[in-house]
Amino acid sequence: MGNIVEDVQSRFENNKVKALINILYTASWISNKQNMFFKQFGISPQQYNILRILKGAKKPLKAQEVKDRMIERSPNSTRLMDKLVAKNLIKRSPCENDRRVVYIHITTDGLNLLKSISSDYNLDILKNLSEGEAEELSDLLDKLR
């Protein structure tokens, strides 16, 4: 891994196509690495994202707010939350004033799980980049979007 031309054994019609394929290929590579990492904790990267959102909020959030803050906005966020409820990592509470609103809380078990996961797990993915290169990459990705 390290050269998109060699990794996918293909040539590209121009550098913009090459860059796009490289972004997609790298996103898949990162996703696979994260799936493998979180497997040992019995959660997915998306479930980890939900737990981090709730921890960072420091208060219960509406389910829709959690969905809106997710990095990977998927239509199955309710199912992801169902699995976290089943594992006692989050809990749901209905809103007293509006039956349509559900608040999501992180539990003590959820907080303890987050404490057991190294906060620098992503650094391995970025180990080949200097701080300056990481900043440049982030700026380029922001420009792309």
UniProtKB/TrEMBL annotation:
Pfam families: MarR. Residues 17-145 form the HTH marR-type domain. InterPro entries: HTH_MarR-typ (IPR000835), MarR/SlyA-like (IPR039422), WH-like_DNA-bd_sf (IPR036388), WH_DNA-bd_sf (IPR036390). It comes from the Bacteria. GO terms for biological process: response to stress. One of its GO terms (molecular function) is DNA-binding transcription factor activity. This is MarR family transcriptional regulator. It comes from Bizionia argentinensis JUB59.
